[in-house]
Amino acid sequence: MEFNPFAPEVKQNPYPYYAHLRNHSPVYWVESLQAWAVSRYEDVAYIAKNTQLFSSAPIIPAILGELNPVPEVKWLISTDPPAHMPLRKLVNKAFTPRMVAALEPRIKQIAAQLLEGVEQGADFDLVRDFSTPLPMMVIAEMLGVDSERYRDFKRWSDDLMRMTGGAVAPTELERLRASVADLSRYFAQVIEERRRNPKEDLITALVRAEEESQALSAREVLAMCLLLLIAGNETTTNLLGNTVVTLLSHPPEIAKVRAELSLVPQMIEEMLRYLSPVQAIFRLATTDTEIAGSTIPAGSKVLILYGSANRDERQFPDPDTFDLARNPQDHLGFGFGIHYCLGAPLARLEARVAMDALLSRFPHLQRRDHQPLEWVDSFVIRGPKTLPLEIRRG
Length: 394
Ligand code: HEM
Fold this sequence. Notes:
The strands form 3 sheets. A 5-stranded mixed beta sheet has the order 1-2-8-5-3, covered by helices on one side. It is of the alpha+beta class. It has one domain: CATH 1.10.630.10. The longest helix has about 30 residues. About 50% of the residues lie in helices and about 10% in strands. The chain is globular and about 60 Å long. The structure holds protoporphyrin IX containing FE. Protoporphyrin IX containing FE binds next to helix 13 and helix 17.
């Protein structure tokens, strides 16, 4: 069997391929990526944990490539110890469960506002009309930029993400570069503005960190803003899309959750395992290291398959079953180790509020068409591109 993450049949459903890898080639050379794919839970967790052996340096180059507007600075997600922790501390405060809990009323308002206009028989697309704008508007407000500009944000952040899908034509690269330059200019303006007029928002906090401790350079403030856009939007959008897709194909489960909305948080944990929005991420081997009996040579790229680890039968009994009662505490949907998702408390809150709002407003939800789903064009991220729904209120 060949595992090529760009092949259409792998994109449509990578899970049988992952299972084959886990059972036959737990360390597999992916020609199309020039990287070693690692697929078992134990090995993925080991690599994520051992930052001296496996560096995160290739992540931002892999995601942004030539589009990176600030290639010379340290991006949190791509930084190894000892530089990682001081950088993470600067943003941690804003994302603790306590800080995030304070956002709940506002997130509820945004969710209600987005669903307000949706009417029976209307052309409602969950991805376009709900799961995309929701996290965009939340992060825009946290950063302190005008949430009404979320459509620009969406375009910008799509353009930033374009590189992960594979080859980009030279003509398109020009357009993407211009778009990222616009976004950087926009943030640079807001950063300057907050320097003059501080507010109670995340950009002000980052600017303050820059001024007070010289902990961050102005370009690092920009990188942090861009990272929060990249890391927090598409991922949350896909978690919501995946949740609705899965519930609609599991009628007994959706009935249980509807009857008992307090099950939503554990349903979300099982979703993060069962259909992980982040399927894979890169590392770089710093030293020759033996993994599952194979030696990964120093200097090689490694693709750790979180999506596969989360379906590893060695860790999760009956892994291909979506089981509401499972409530897994050990899934790798948010990663593992020092780079464990900064936004996990926020993503969990957004997903809970969004699913509560959706399920309690619309007692009947079904897909409007029965075409095979089209998935987002990336082996890093998994979720439906669009999800037209038919809704009926009570
Ligand atoms: C369901 C939604 C989300 C998923 C599935 C997700 C997943 C992940 C994963 C797997 C990692 C680890 C990457 C690695 O191992 O290198 C990560 C890191 C990160 N995530 Fe999330 N994420 C989500 C939402 C968010 C949100 C809402 C934010 C912020 C607004 C965010 C910000 C970050 C940041 C900054 C990092 C890097 C942390 C570090 O390097 O210390 N994420 N995320």
